Protein 1
Amino acid sequence: MAEPSWLPAPSNYPGSFYEDLYKSLHANPNLSTQESFAAETVCQHLESLNTRNPGQYAIHSRIGGYGVAAVLRNGPGKTVLLRADMDALPVEETTGLAYASTKREVDLADQLEKPVMHACGHDVHVTCLLAAADALAADTKAWSGTLVLVFQPNEERGKGAQAMVEGGLYDKVPVPDMVLGQHVYPFRSGQVKVRTGPFFSAADSFRITLFGRGAHGSMPSRSIDPVVLAANVVLRLQGIVSRETDPAEFAVLTVGSVQAGQTENIISDKAVLGLDFRTFSTVTRGRILAALHRIVKAECQASGCTREPLIEETRRFPMLVNDGEVTAEVGKSFARDFRGDFDPDWAHVPASEDVSVLAESVGKPCCYWTFGGTEAETWDRAEKEGKIMEDIPVNHSGYFAPVIQPTLKTGTRALYAAALTFLKKE
């Protein structure tokens, strides 16, 4: 595939403008449901494209929160939806970058002020989709059909795609023939990887409140200590995967937060656990869910709790399944464009995504792929020394910092190639 005419040169793809746009997004993150900066940036940029490109995007904002969608109609043909997510995470950035986030924001989920960082690469996703939108609008003679762009809020809580659908997304834009998207991932930059069938895991998250009885720290016999109870629950929960799940089945269970008490000499009256588990099987999911309830209730009973624990679901992601036919066609384009840097049969990804809701809600197929964001020399050195686990920061880490190039080049080119796979002129 020839380089799009809008690119100044392959060496600085997609140009310093998009590198600066990325840095601006990275330095100005917003938590889920509060994505005002990214949404405003998206709308302003799409409006600017309409002033200098032959194509004209019809722009729709505030869909399901801060969601933005845009439509470019360019003659007969298929309708392709490209999606990027916009929200950031409550993580303190420790990258030391000149454009690192120093922002703090009140999380509307619990009304607590927290540091905010684009620790999952959604700033990369937005930048690549805007750059691809630029390329496709500037090159309308090369394709025919309808392009739909979706910039989605609230992916991290697993509710943004559904919110956009319920907010009238498909009343504003045409129903696509397929939904396409991508995620930057901590492997060698320049590479693209995908898998047909189940690709990203299902995820279930819970807030578990354990009710004990408070007392003076010197009088533990007068209490039902929720800290000791929480410790027993955490340890016992680890046995669900290691001792109750078939080793041939994938499962991950993580207790990501434990909160109890305010000071050293007071035994609190409750403890709150934040728990998440991932699966690729509905049967395995059901068994883990049942074991979770059984263990929590049994440990409370063993501790003599007088009040039942409260187990609340906080989010749920569906399993992401890549359609065979669509993924095979996208794979042909990627094999041509990325050659040895494309892997069509990568491993299952234990992370989770809600992009498939945009497809499944209207009965359409989905294809989602990953592209690398780790600087090549850093990756090669870590791989040679056997230190990938230690030296390569992963998504959701305060050290996660995708190298700007060729990451933006790769992500933009992947979206461009995938869209043109189905928007070919007959």
Protein 2
Amino acid sequence: MPRAELDERYSSSAAEPLPWSEAVTRLADAEVYWLTTVRPDGRPHVTPLIAVWADGALHFCTGPDERKARNLRTNPAVVLTTGRNTLDEGVDLVVEGDADRVSDEVRLRGLAAAWEAKYGPDWHFDVQDGAFANPQAGRALVFAVAPRTAFGFDKGERFGQTRWRF
């Protein structure tokens, strides 16, 4: 279990650290995430995508020739964010870690089932040659991001900033 720290500089006097279990629930339930990777020249690249929480990590997929996959070949460091696009309610979450390629076919089949359960039959993937396969979308590499550090930004009257160290 990660250690939670409330940053009092950015928190109301009534704020308490957000429990990691609540952050995990919100990470699992979110529908859209923003992935930040680093281009070979050091510039950031940000893109929205879908993901699933499983086995203590966020998982996303991408075509092998997409910008994010090309970036990950040279630098696995990523940031995934999700939350509400509102100022005074909800919780925004930031997960920092390394994107590790998942190629084990048993694990991929479980993740493919999780994708379809969360996003519906339009997101059905078969597993083939250590990747997702879809007749319309083609081949997709799957990556897992286990949090190294995470932040929660609780908004509203009792606003607070929680940092989790793993």
